[in-house]
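seq as requested:
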Amino acid sequence: MEVIHPTDLDEALAALAAHPEAVLLAGGTDLMVEVNFDQIRPEKVILLRRLAELQDVSRQRIGAGVTFRRLESGDHQALAQLARTIGSPQIRAAGTLGGNIGTASPAGDALPFLAGLDAEIELSSKDGTRRVRWDRFFLGVKQTALRPGELITAVILPTDLPDCQEFAKIGQRSAMVISIASACVFRWRDGRTRVAMGSVGPTPIRARQAEEMMSAESNPGPAALQEFARLVSEEVRPISDHRGTADYRRHASGVLARRLLERCLAK
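struct tokens:
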């Protein structure tokens, strides 16, 4: 295995252009598991840890190399909440936002956050930079719109960020858990509401009908909250696996979304 150590983004993109078959390594929390279980044997690996261009964080732009440890204390509440639930302290210190996006697992904890805010994924290659909105980037289970020669450089968030944002997930244990279902709920002072779900479809899911219904409610009561939960449950597309049944995931989605909305309304 040959490991290439670029010192800046231009070197990394040149290496990727010369070796489009190379595997990209940032934190390695997903890749090294596959290597250790002999599931993949890459001939060339491009190391991204030294790229300062991927480390910047601002309110609207988060570099792909930013670790979940840093995001734990960031400005975005839901992103900080989800970062604290990922793995162990060692995993959070190594794992990056870009790696979570590139893996594109349905259980990726950061994905509902991106979906709920209509975030764009910034992709760079030797030919330039382009932005792809989340729903055009995530194509299926571990499938993305990333082209040969491209790497994820940042997440771009909108300027109109919500006044309240909340994240939670359900798993089989209380720590180091892979989501059975996860949710992000966002609400603005004018009543606009968004809800995005993870682990309940091949890609993150926006519950559009639930959003439309709740956005029309300026002061939602118990009946509106119950209807909101019902609509969320109807809009997800879960499967049954060793972590949970489709019926349980559907029910859990509605419960999670309602509880997070109640948190927003209580503020």
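DSSP finds eleven helices and 13 strands in the chain.
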